[in-house]
Amino acid sequence: MVPAPEYATSEVVLSSLYRVIGFGISERSVPQQGTKLQGLIKKARERTSAPTIGALGADAFDTLLTSVLESPKRSNQSAKRFLQVTPLVPQLALFSGSPRLTGNPWTPGVLVRRMVWLGAREHTAAEAIWRRLFNALTVQENDDIFARFVQSEVKAWLPDSNWAFAPVPSDAILSCPDVGNGAFPARQFVQDLESIIASKNLLTRRQWTSLLEAILRLGTVAHVIWLCELHARVWTCLLEALDGNGPSSVRDARLRLFPERFSFLPLSNKPLPGIRDSISRYLTARLGINATLWALEEAGIKPADLLGSAEGLLEVCDQLRSFRTDSWASDIREIVEELTDRETRTLLCRKGIGSNISEFVTYSLQQRQTANPRLRAYDQGYLLRKRGTHANSPWIVSLGPVATIALVHCALSGVAGPRSVRRLAQHLAQYGVSMDHRDIPQNELGHQLRMLGLVLDSPDAESGMLLVPPFRGDSGGRADE
Questions:
Q1: Between residues 51 and 76, the one the model is more confident about
Q2: Averaged pLDDT, 176-204
Q3: Which of 6, 50, 297, 318 has its CA 20 to 30 A from that of 136?
């Protein structure tokens, strides 16, 4: 799991994606750039006789950043003074949207890049998608006038903000795992990313970035939890091999390694306990896998690369079966048990990497709880919402309006002819969102689809509901507000 996830929201992921794909700068430089910009605005205010830097004066530009483009802070950030704006255009990511204000934060944009390379059919296809994504993120002449205005103003204040396609390092070149027909979120994410890119000319810049954020937040979290599931499955196979069993063929190893069905977000139910359990099993699996590989190396056996490869997993299991003795297998189990007892708080996601992954998942999926109650409706691309208004109300799986529009659009992309809501349920299942499509007409999702005008009730359609494309298909038009 590289990079190791920490805190992030959808806007942080998009901002980091801007920095990775078009600026090539580190996350740690963002807070300093924000402080620098605030200093420039302050000096311009004090110099009343100085010429205007951009089309707006210092006061007007400050209002643009802190009011018009304001991204509301969470309740625990209300006392902190830093710039946080909506990542509408690339230049805004130079001083806003860092995962952390101090230290050496992780880079969410690298996670997105790895997903593109894992989910694409081949290396050349990944390069082409990455290039198309860069072109879509670039503010061009056909973007709306407000986006072009914001970009020109920020460039006037930060003239060194050169936006250009950043070269992809060699460590980003990954091969797609042989998952067979199993659920694979990265593959679905790449397909949906292409659908979102294709919709750009039908939308305003703000509408389009909102849809992109919705796909980013669901895709990245699903990929991380899927990786947790893979580690747990690898450790189960190794435990069986230590007993003389485990997969005996490549086909068997592939079936054991990659889940045929992947589910961690039950619609209208509480997912967080199950998510924490998945993360805990991942951490336990890491302890076991590392202990087993170290034991093989100490025995003079070079272990194969077993993560993401059915052939590698089978080879390591064969190595364990051929070398094992009862005492050797018992020693490995004792080491894992000792480490598990020692790292109980980490395994329970109360500190360390377990807590970091849990933070990433929850803050990415949850509707943002804003410090300013007037802005509580700001986030509409969420996947989790509070069941009630009380502070201790549980979080349940519920798609926000923007997320619903984005996923319906992606589910219908490239499809000829009408499709029922079952198509949407199958699409969501690729990301681990589980539901019975026959319940959609009566549940909250069905109500949301009706409110947004995304379905037609028809007695001839399966479940009585046909999906309606959310945008007009003419290339020159704009989406309805």
A1: 76
A2: 87
A3: 6
